Amino acid sequence: MSRPILEVIALDAADAVAAQAGGADRLELVTDIAADGLIPSRETFAEIRSAVDLPLRVMLRASDGFGCGGSAALDALCARAEALRAEGADEFVLGFLGSDGLADLAAIRALTGVISAGSGLDESRWTFHRAIDRAADRDVLRQQLAGLPGLDTYLTAGSAAGVDDGLPVLVDEAARGAGGPRIMVGGGLRLDHLPALRAAGIDAFHIGGAARPSGWDGPVGTASVHQWRAALDEVVPVG
């Protein structure tokens, strides 16, 4: 049984170094956490890339909410994504909903085209973020996205309200999701959720504030990340 993935949100190089020292497997890079995480600058990506050797998933989202903001905003976001790609970013986090509450496929395809173009890769790997928790129909959204190149993860709490409310949904989707993109649980995730989630076969977890002993006003704490790493390594899935 491979060890579960622990992904930690990093805002800067100091966060990244602390997360790696604590045992994180991957980082999600964002800025402006007050807006639930927006696209970082090219300079911030470069600083973090030079500070750690973990895989980095870079957020592609320029404003609060889950709409792309229209054609001009999408063009600007694509340009920033292209700059990050040129800097060496090769894994991303993205996802937009249309006015019907389902996937905005035009925006998603535009961005995935940019992040794979000229990369030397068949496809850049990416996560569809917690926009799924605001979707009008989670199953329909998954059907819309099925087969899109590079999509390998859904970051989800199972509910817009967080893991406490979404736990039954996560367990059900894990049971039905064999062979599809990995479920990565994040959004109000606590240590006491881990036994049920691991028993369901879920093997990827995402933390932000839980990695920061002083909350979002303070940095990632190595000891906090290590606590999660140790807890995940101790929980053995049933079956």
Automatic annotation (TrEMBL):
One Pfam family name is CutC
* Family assignment from sequence similarity: Belongs to the CutC family.
> What protein name is recorded for this chain?
Copper homeostasis protein cutC homolog
